[in-house]
Amino acid sequence: MVEPPTQDVIAARLLLSPRFVNWISHTLQLKPTDWNGLGASLGRLSSMRLLEPALADDLQELTLTARFALARRESADVNGHQGRRAGP
Fold first, then answer.
1. What is the pLDDT of residues 37-80, one digit of tens each?
2. What are phi and psi of 9, to 5 degrees?
């Protein structure tokens, strides 16, 4: 049985793609509260699977993980938590 790749292996494969590096450089320029921009950026990431078929599984995993994290953050902001944790 073949084991799934680790996160390090997935990250390395993605960072070897000029398209992915271009995508991430543009995404990092967005404000963390720009939900529309982040959503559009994730849409571009998802469509990149057609242009990079060898990375399709890795891009799908990243897209799902990012959308889940974004949804959690939006939910926390809507509920007034703004993503902050209580701490010392």
1. 888 998 898 889 999 999 999 999 888 888 888 787 767 666 66
2. -65, -45
Return the HEC string of the chain.
Answer: CCCCCCHHHHHHHHHCCHHHHHHHHHHCCCCCCCHHHHHHHHHHHHHHHHHCHHHHHHHHHHHHHHHHHHHHHHHHHHCCCCCCCCCC
Q: Where are the domains of the chain?
A: 7-76
Q: At how many degrees (to 10) do helices 18-27 and 7-15 cross?
A: 100
State how far the alpha carbon of 23 is from the alpha carbons of 3, 12, 31, 48, 59, in Å: 28, 15, 15, 9, 12
pTM of the model: 0.72
Structure-block tokens of residue 6 = 């680790």
> Which residue in 9, 16, 19 sits closest to 61, CA to CA?
9
